[in-house]
Protein 1
Amino acid sequence: MKAVIFDLDETLIHSRIDFKKMKSQTIRYLERVGVTPGLLNDRMLNFDITRISVENLRGKGSSEEDVKRVLAKVDKIMNQVELESFDEATVVDDVPETLEVLKAEGLKIGIMTRSCHEYTEKVLAKLGLADYVDAIAARDDVEESKPNPEHAFHLLRLLGVSVEEALLVGDHWLDAECASRAGIRFVLFRRPDQDVQASQVHGYQAIGNMTEIVDVVRRSSCP
């Protein structure tokens, strides 16, 4: 084991991003530029809002250049809402201590997030985590972010490690799906509202405290 890849929001930090605001602004914009009214709602993941909108616009004959312009504007909306919130973020319990131990044992640390790069850098610096991180792969660093495995492959290249040498830790099914598609071992950082049995059904390990990842890595590194 040479690297541990972490999701950001609700894995390393408690974010205070106003997702309801983000989604409502995004949906209003998308409907203004031609997405069928009523097709989108704020109960959807941002991932699905974007995917469904692109399919809808293409189905109505929008060019790829038009779609790219729309997606660029959506990114700006999302970035702005994220940046408005970074000062309110807090660190998850035991994260600094855990990252310090992992670095002391020679592990590289990567961040793979659907937040934008600027927000990620600012929030890591604010919370004193930036010095532990070797590489960041944010939403705007790749053409398609997780669950697309290319997001993970991009970060692996930045870290200089192979699929077999990495472990991915996250709190969401998007993280698990990305890990599965990339062939990376996955560990679920289980939130209090998540059922540990669900992770067992899907065949991946779950932890409830960040310090547990140190033991997981040590066992993985044993010959």
Note: Residues 19-86 form one domain.
Protein 2
Amino acid sequence: MNGPDPSLKPTERFSSRVEAYRRFRSRYPGEIIALLEERCALTRESVVADVGAGTGMLAELFLANGNRVFAVEPNADMRAACEELVARYPHLTCVDGTAEETHLADRSVDFVAVGRALHWFDQEKCRPEFVRILREGGWVVLANQGPDRRSESVIREFQDILKTHGLD
């Protein structure tokens, strides 16, 4: 198995994978919205920062709910793919930033939402950034998908494919 290209910064590693990411990456369940409405007082007026937004898969759930979303993404190619959503969702603003430096205004969002990108963040540096941009009473939402226990054989087969053919 080949390792990652050591010359690539973590923020550049997905540049050549945008189309595959959009086509094959699993989507977030729409039930996230109802859960956040019930437990965290999410409303259509809530402003969301999707940090590490990639192509906008998590942002799209909030946008479909009517929320204003700032999609913070450091990778130019992934951010460009996310910006294509603006045609359908005018409340989307894509921002060239990182979890550690979002470039958003102080106290500007009600929710910081993070999908499958959390492991790329410098946790000690992103925490104060999230606190800085969150309004009083705001929430940090971590959305990830664990394995579906009903299909463990599919997961094993997928992991075998990654081991055999994965680039990193």
Note: The chain has one domain: 10-165.
Protein 3
Amino acid sequence: MTLKIAMAQINSTVGDLEENAEKIRRFIAEAKSQKANLVVFPELAITGYPPEDLLLENAFVERNKELLGELIEDNNFDIAGVIGFVDCKGKNLYNAAATFNRNKIVGVSYKTLLPTYDVFDEDRYFTPAEKEEILPVSIDLHGKEFKLGIEICEDLWDQDYDLKVTDLLARKGADLIVNISASPFHVGKIFERKNKLKKKSIKKQIAHILCESSRRTR
């Protein structure tokens, strides 16, 4: 089947959960109006990036999950999508991506590689995905099963890590790999990212797309 993908490169505001959720809602509707089958949002689109010490507030984390659930449950469009948010299990927080189909969440994927260099300090807040949790998400698009491999930002930049997320997703049958990101931008970065995606797509013979926040500086 032909898959039309909408890349919703929104600029979420850190901490403004309600406005971020409303923006996502509007872009889902816009994607459907453009006849997209799949709409993809950036890393931590619900909370904004980086939420940092806001993550220490339980009410903030719970509200981000509530809003995610509400906007997907209210979705009446025949469209699938991927939205970045913060998930929690007990005391552990996860930089997560929810995959939805119509008005149901069909899978939740966690970021595996947590950067701790430069401006990043993610392992202070988040728990990484375990190797066995790295699996494609199966979605039904017009009667055809489609396996979507989900990566979150640093999972693409695995050259300095022992665990290779792309390789695992490819081996487990992903038909398409989607990377959602909110990393800082600098001059020339776009060419580095394009080259990385091109090399991985050729090596694994799987289409690989990147959706990042529209923010260009921080």
Note: Residues 17-33 form the longest helix (17 residues).
Protein 4
Amino acid sequence: MEETYHKWYAQYLGSDFEMLVFGLSGYPIILFPTAKGKYYESKDFGLIASVQEFIDSGKIKIYCPDNIDSQSWYNYSVLPGDRVKTHIAYEKTILSDVIQFAKYETGSKIVGVAGCDFGAYHALNIAFKHPDKIDSLVCMGGFYDIKQFIFGFYDDSCYFNNPPDYMSNLTEHWYLEKIKKMEIILGTSEWDSSLDENKRMSGILSSKEIVHRLDIRAGAGHDWQAWKDMFPVYLAKILE
């Protein structure tokens, strides 16, 4: 399996940024790490291997950017407002450096996003905020409410980065129509600590008449094995 390492200076973050890319060609998918995870964890924990067939056949090309959660949402040494600002800088880096690069490399006009655990938050948030750039969303064991990180602090930046809030109130026709064209899969399990958050997000999407799939796996929990079982099934659906 073709694997490429990239490192560059990310201007929005003011620091170096790293990423692994798997595959030579195909539909580009941005795969975010779990909470405070690194760009190589999806490889190390076997998530990439679970979809190697799609990569080797040239159907998909997976981009695994690094994560700065420890400097943003999980950085309790700074004020909540500063955590949000750091997250916004990360999002700008993903949009300008990672997504644009993936589109250039593959010749695709659009990309898919995916993630497990808090990586699913990054995928879902960026997809719903920028549905003109993304046409598929795969979440596995996702957590989507960032209020747990801001301790009562709340401003417009918090609101527009908290999907349960802004999606509940979304009425803008352009956004709704773009999101309705997106392939959306929310995967969770009956013993998953994220089960309630996924049910809640599914309810919000249904209230907006946004077609999606909520997949609740029996006999599984919040772990890599569950996600490795989910990922190839969901990608097969996305590629139909």
Note: Residues 150 and 194 are 19 Å apart (CA to CA).
